[in-house]
Amino acid sequence: MTWLAWRQHRYQALLVAAALALAAAALAVQRYAMAAARPGPQWTSWGAIFALVLFEIFAMLLVPVLLGIFLGAPLVARELEGGTHRLAWTQSISRRRWLLVGLAVVLAISLAATAALSAAVSWALAPWVALEQGTGNPGWFSNGTFDVVGVVPVAYALFALALGVASGALVRRTLLAMFVVLVVFTAVRMPVALAARPNYEPPVHLTYPVGVTHLDALYRSGAWTVSMSLVDAGGRPVQTCSGSDCDHARLRVDYQPGDRFWTFQWIEAGIYLGLSALLLGVAYVVVLRRAT
Questions:
Q1: Which of 60, 79, 56, 57 shows the shortest CA–CA distance to 9?
Q2: Beta-strand runs (E) in the chain
Q3: Among 30, 175, 251, 274, which residue's Cβ finds the most Cβ atoms within 10 Å?
Q4: Taken in order 124, 127, 129, 130, is the CA torsion positive or negative?
Q5: pLDDT value at position 183?
Q6: Residue ranges of the chain whose pLDDT lies below 50
Q7: What residues are paired with 251 via a beta bridge?
Q8: Would you call 219 exposed, middle or buried from its count of C-beta atoms within 10 A (0-12, 13-18, 19+)?
């Protein structure tokens, strides 16, 4: 069964390996170009480097959902849609083994590739993040960068694959399962990143007189600014100030310290690991109980 599962997915594995090799080569070139440049204002305005970084982040954001669409969704749906599962289930192979072996092969290919790519992206982005922090901009903790480095890309990939497998088992149509992966993955990722992530731990608060801030120092420490607002002397929010009113107004900054980066990475990874376990459980129950 293991040999059969490998034969079914060997072309996807070779494609993933080739894509990973090309990505590693491109990231190495990018890292070399960044390291060879002189840090300074002229580098921050280097449009080609900036565009390359944005493209790299965008492409890395797409990797998990593409794995879920093209590897996770067809795993069960293709077999059920084509009726080929009946042959496997009438042989000596149990449904449980049929599902678990197929899952093991797909997960091994996808998660290993995602982990390797995440490590390569982290290595390639290091000079850029160092420059960003040095010029008063968020570093590893900023939206976008946080999502493509560390352990969270692997958790995203696992969630997308589990979503694809569960969708395929439930709807029994490959194209429909692919569509479900795209919609549900996006519907989950956006609220978690925008609403839940800033509040994994209570933000730290600082207040400054209007016109006097130390945000550069915060950014250089790797901090993530969650929100900024105007408050009066009593700490109550105000919309704006003018003239003498600004003498009593303060700028309130809510931020997450840079040393919470890995804590937030593991919290978010844990969320997606839990969702993945739930979805794989659904797929397991559906396959074992579905009539042939």
A1: 79
A2: 204-209, 224-231, 237-238, 250-256
A3: 30
A4: positive
A5: 97
A6: 45
A7: 208, 230
A8: buried
- Sign of the torsion formed by the C-alpha atoms of 177, 179, 182 and 188: negative
Contact 114, 157 (CB under 8 A): yes
Q: What residues contact residue 290 under an 8 Å CB cut-off, 6+ apart?
A: 80, 169
pLDDT score for 283: 94
DSSP SS3 for 150: coil
| Beta-strand pair 250-256/204-209 | antiparallel
Q: Tokens 């600014």, residue? A: 225
- Give the per-residue pLDDT at 45: 46
Distances (CA, A) of 104 to 48, 71, 220: 40, 12, 42
Euclidean distance between CA atoms 190 and 261, whole angstroms: 19
Structure tokens that stand for 110 in this block? 């996808």
Pair of tokens at residue 44 = 């921050």
Distance between CA atoms of residues 114 and 108, nearest Å: 10
Count CB-CB contacts under 10 A for residue 191. 10
- Beta pairing partners, 255: 204, 225
- CA nearest 156: which of 75, 78, 234, 66? 66
pTM of the entire predicted model: 0.86
- What DSSP line would sit under 172-212, residue for residue? --HHHHHHHHHHHHHHHHHHIIIIIGGGSSPPEEEEEETT-
| Residue 35 confidence (pLDDT) | 66
> Dihedral of CA 129/135/141/146: which sign?
negative
Residue type, 41: P
pLDDT at residue 178 in the model:
95
Domain regions of the chain by residue span: 2-199+259-289, 204-256
Phi and psi for 224 in degrees, rounded to 5? -115, 115
Check: CB of residue 165 under 8 Å from CB of residue 67.
Answer: no
| Spacing of C-alpha 244 from chain mean position | 46
